[in-house]
Write a structure and sequence with these properties.
- This protein has 2 domains: 52-181, Probable inorganic polyphosphate/atp-NAD kinase, domain 1 (Rossmann fold); 198-354, Tumour Suppressor Smad4, CATH 2.60.200.40.
- The chain is built from 9 helices and 21 strands.
- The protein has helices spanning 45-48, 66-82, 98-108, 120-129, 160-164, 171-180, 209-217, 226-236, 297-309; strands spanning 4-8, 20-22, 39-41, 52-58, 86-92, 113-118, 131-132, 135-136, 149-150, 153-154, 183-192, 198-201, 204-208, 242-248, 253-265, 287-293, 318-323, 325-330, 338-341, 344-348, 351-363.
- The strands form 4 sheets. Strands 11, 12, 13, 14, 15, 16, 17, 18, 19, 20 and 21 form an 11-stranded antiparallel sheet that branches. Strands 1, 4, 5, 6, 9 and 10 form a 6-stranded mixed sheet that branches. It has a two-stranded antiparallel ribbon with strand order 2-3.
- The longest helix is centred in the first third of the chain and has 17 residues, at 66-82.
- The chain starts with a strand and ends with a strand.
- GO terms for molecular function: ATP binding; kinase activity.
- Keywords: ATP-binding, Kinase, Nucleotide-binding, Transferase.
- It comes from Cucurbita maxima (Pumpkin).
- This is Sphingoid long-chain bases kinase 2, mitochondrial.
């Protein structure tokens, strides 16, 4: 059972009423346990008082348990900074994909914002919770104009999406952003999966070596951001550059020989601070495509500093272009080219990608 609570921030803890569980009227995600609780409200009188709900999604296992410890330290400041206008609904995730459930339920219940607390993994799940079956989730009243916003308190290992906005892992600054209430719409990338389903990403989708490196990096999270470098080096073991063909914006197929990595960015960073797609902008209506060709392991080592600071676009065999949609296939069709989005393994090529301009309102 998930430990979830909602605080009426003007109350002392001893005065809080007994929480009750709210559930969606329809199944939220077919692969999850229907008995799983989503979040609790402290009192049904909150809605009638005009106070707005902020749903904070916390991964208690994030950063080896550090995330939830930092979150508990942050709650008193939340009470002070946001208590006048908001109800704070805390929901601890119990496993993979639970944040997607929480987000969909919060949106249906009319939450003012859903705010992941942690790293890119939790953020990625919350972004996917804004959609279902290829469409945006709306509240139970069907009032699309009262959209739920997306927030972020970065506390995880990577926090790569936050870097594009120049945010650090300072939770106090994050709460202050929420209190200011400034919002703007951001684009969201979409991956078409083999089974016809859609998968959404706010940051970077990537193919081949970088995706394989991300797959391996998950084993070394205990080393912090160094896990991505370790993953890349392990990925080079037995790695072979592959000939790929791509179709951009429904144009003609183009051949790209000896591709090492292909990265599709809505935002700039991945891999714990690598500025892999330096020209990406999550509000310009485009995806930025970066392709590395014919790299050897020593090319990666020699150019690692340029990848981190975003100057690698001047390196030989690195190209970049803006796209709205892209299809990627392997010429030889081996079925072994890794695909990931925001660090989430999504299987293998072929895949299609496109952009949803201004898809989500974000607290910034």
């Amino acid at each position: 059972m998930v430990e979830c609570f909602c605080y009426h921030l003007a109350f002392r803890p001893s005065m809080a009423t007994k929480p009750f569980v709210t559930r969606a009227e329809q199944p939220i995600a077919p692969d999850l346990n229907a008995d799983r609780s989503i979040f609790h409200r402290g009192s049904s009188s909150f809605s009638s008082s005009g106070r707005r709900d902020l749903v904070f999604v916390v991964n208690p296992r994030g950063a080896n348990g550090k995330t939830v410890k930092e979150w508990k330290k942050l709650v008193p400041y939340l009470r002070t900074r946001l208590g006048e206008h908001y109800n704070i609904c805390e929901s601890l995730t119990s496993g993979p994909c639970h944040a997607i459930d929480i987000t969909r339920e919060a949106i249906r219940e009319g939450a003012d914002a859903v705010i992941p607390v942690g790293g890119d993994g939790t953020f990625h799940e919350v972004v996917n919770g804004f959609f279902w079956d290829g469409k945006p989730v709306v509240n139970n009243d069907g009032e699309v104009h009262k959209s739920t916003a997306l927030g972020l308190i970065p506390l995880g290992t990577g926090s790569d999406f936050a870097r594009t906005f120049g945010w650090n892992n300072n939770p106090i600054e994050a709460v202050d952003r929420i209190a200011k209430g400034l919002r703007s719409r951001i684009d969201i990338g979409v991956v078409n999966k083999e089974n016809g389903e859609y998968h959404y990403f706010a940051n970077v989708a990537d193919i081949h070596l970088s995706a394989k490196a991300g797959f391996y990096a998950a084993r070394y999270k205990r080393f912090g951001n160094l896990c991505y470098v370790i993953g890349a080096l392990q990925g080079f073991i037995g790695h072979k550059n592959k000939d790929l063909k791509i179709k951009v914006d429904n144009g003609e197929w183009e051949l790209y020989p000896q591709v090492t990595s292909l990265c599709i960015g809505n935002a700039k960073y991945f891999g714990g601070g690598m500025k892999i797609v330096p020209n990406a902008d999550p509000s310009n209506g485009n995806l930025e495509l970066v392709i590395l060709q014919d790299f050897k392991w020593y090319d990666f080592i020699l150019n690692l500093h340029k990848i981190y600071n975003g100057t690698h676009l001047t390196v030989k065999n690195v190209s970049s272009r803006s796209v709205r949609s892209i299809e990627v296939e392997e010429v030889s069709s081996s079925g072994s080219i890794y695909v990931q989005a925001d660090g989430e393994h999504l299987g293998f090529l072929p895949r299609k990608f496109h952009i949803l301009p201004a898809a989500i309102e974000m607290i910034c």
